[in-house]
Amino acid sequence: MAVQKDIDYHISFGDARIIGGLSVHSAEFDATFYYDGDDLGCDYSEHRSRFRLWAPTASMAHLVLYDDWQTDSFVEMPMTRSEKGTWTITVYRDLKGSFYTFKVLIDRQWQEAVDPYARAVGVNGDRGAIIDLAETNPPNWGEYRLPFSSPVDAVIYEVHVRDLTIHPHSGAEHKGKFLGAAQVGTRGPGMIRTGLDHIKDLGITHIQFLPIYDYSTDSVDETKLHQPQYNWGYDPKNYNVPEGSYATDPYEPTTRIAELKTLIHTIHEQGMRVIMDVVYNHVYDAYRHLFMKLVPGYYFRYHHDLSLSNGSGCGNDVASERKMVRKFIVDSVVYWAREYKLDGFRFDLMGLHDIETMNEIRRRLDEIDPSIILLGEGWDIPTAMHRDMQAMQHHAYRMPRIAHFNDGLRDTLKGNTFNLREPGFASGRHGLEHDVKRGIIAGVQYQEHLRSFALEPVQCVNYVEAHDNHTLWDKLYLTSAHLDDMTRRKIHMLCSAIILTSQGIPFIHAGQEFMRTKHGDENSYKSSTEVNQLDWDRCAQFSKEVQYMRKLIALRKQHPAFRMPNADLIREHLVFEHAPANAVAFTLRNHANGDAAKDIYVVHHANWHPIEIHLPSFGLWRTVFGEEHLQTNELMLHGSVTILPYGSVVFINS
Ligand code: CA
């Protein structure tokens, strides 16, 4: 407080980046104004509502109360300057059902903005809403959590809420909504199980939803849901509120909250868990975002010439390394974990965040439930922050229990994502065996020349496709147009088999099990429903391939040897075996990770011709997976066996 007395609250620069001689970007500003209380935002109770806003560069601040989400009539009440640049007011009446914003006077201009800590909003998120959160809980919500074992026991399935049920044959009642995704017992073409039932049947442990927080009106206008609109939602608007377009009523603030909780609760009841895709690295439009209105310049990263850093490619990077930004991100993740009982968080462009923020998130989530999974895109992206601070793959060793997407294996298997016609290991490119092995060992240090970014397998997410870029099927069309459809299916399944039999955390893109196509659309973030929807007709048509994925996941779950929780076990029990070119073979030996099978032998084969492999001499082998790729149908095998083109076979020696 003593420091603040000396501060001249006149703003020196028109862009409000200086207060009392302190730049909002300076360490001194953070030291002076860091507020570590847990009462930012609106604290509602029947008798009174308390508000606290952090806005150190404002010379005045007002609470604005509205009767509803749209009327112009309001009551404006001055807030009192409080500690560390915060402003407070308590209103002694029941405000439930009212809407609110804050107004701040900065550089002689009033700016009105939604509370960054708002937990409920009206349609399109332009006003905060005052609600009783307890009333949004589904029956039996309680204190219950669904703890999990090790992240390597997870099988993650990434899906967009709307894509899951919007197809005309999804069988869901509330198509495209949280409640549609929450429906069990839905049936599709040929009476196949669809939606949540389908995901459960696959054996998925964690469903990862593309953004479910409130995203920009420019992406989807919640007042025009009768018109065709689509967006992935990587355009954050209100970080602590669910998106309105997935609710049956985006106007009623409690509906989206209650319906998202219903979805999460239903998934938990089905024995699965939920990972939320969070996008704290940028906002939709920095200059229109509430961050910029409330504390201009503070929340974003700038170059020396005061232009906005743009590693995100979306026009701005959020400055996670500043103390009140870090606090905001940590508070937000903790809020979602507690209030919505989420089981994991996937950080978009995590490489733009600083390491300290990511580790602080890990620490705080551990206090709630250490089995909450953290994963992210640890890409090496240039941004206006010291490179040494970036939470990227290269620095994985400094974030021990945070996982990174393994783009190395992804591109090894199917070819470089950005070199469209380049094939990969599975589609017949030579010389990639070593890179496949790096993925199989989950990127840990194995031998001097065989290692990647991870210290431990829990840090490595293996995948071959995700919402970004071409689906595997579409990529195979680009790289392997000369092959017939059946061969492409085999190559596709080979890729999935490599992912599911590798160490680390396997990740599947929704529809991968039925060879999802977006008809060549490599960035469908705002493409049509037809491009993006999960096509349940195709799911029925590719039932054999869906069955293949089910068997793969079942195999992984049955054998702990595929899920070794630490790198020492991998180094001790995993041995790469001799194999012909364009094939990789390995054994998991001596009851690895407590496996009932004494030894497991896996071969992945990406040649267009049959190959002969020599089963390790110490065993008598039988197949437990991929027997259709064997030329022989003998039960017990030893010595040489012939394997048919493009496939994975798993043998055990019990
Ligand atoms: Ca929205």
From the helix content, strand content and strand pairing, which structural class follows?
A: alpha/beta
Question: Unreliable segments (pLDDT under 50, ≥5 consecutive)?
Answer: 1-16
Ligand types: calcium ion
Major sheet details: 8 strands, parallel, barrel
Q: Give the tally of β-strands.
A: 28
If you compute it from the alpha carbons, what radius of gyration comes out, rounded to the nearest whole angstrom?
26 Å
What oligomeric state best describes the polypeptide chains here?
single chain
Q: Report strand %.
A: 15-25%
What strand order characterises the main sheet?
12-13-16-17-18-19-20-21
Give the overall silhouette: elongated
* Contiguous helical run count: 17
Mean pLDDT: 95
Gap from first CA to last CA: 71 Å
Helix content: 10-25%
List the helices and strands and how they pair.
Layout: H1 2-5, E1 18-19, E2 22-23, H2 27-33, E3 41-44, E4 49-54, E5 60-66, E6 74-78, E7 80-81, E8 86-91, E9 99-106, E10 109-113, E11 128-129, E12 156-159, H3 161-165, H4 178-181, H5 195-202, E13 206-209, E14 213-215, E15 236-242, H6 253-269, E16 273-278, H7 290-294, H8 323-339, E17 344-347, H9 355-368, E18 373-376, E19 403-405, H10 407-414, H11 433-440, E20 460-462, H12 472-479, H13 485-501, E21 505-509, H14 529-532, H15 536-541, H16 543-558, H17 567-573, E22 574-577, E23 583-588, E24 599-605, E25 611-614, E26 622-625, E27 640-643, E28 647-653
Parallel strand pairs: 12-13, 12-21, 13-16, 16-17, 17-18, 18-19, 19-20, 20-21
Antiparallel strand pairs: 1-2, 3-4, 4-8, 5-6, 5-9, 7-8, 9-10, 9-11, 14-15, 22-23, 23-24, 24-28, 25-27, 26-28
Helix pairs in contact: 8-9, 10-11, 12-13, 13-16
The protein binds calcium ion (CA).
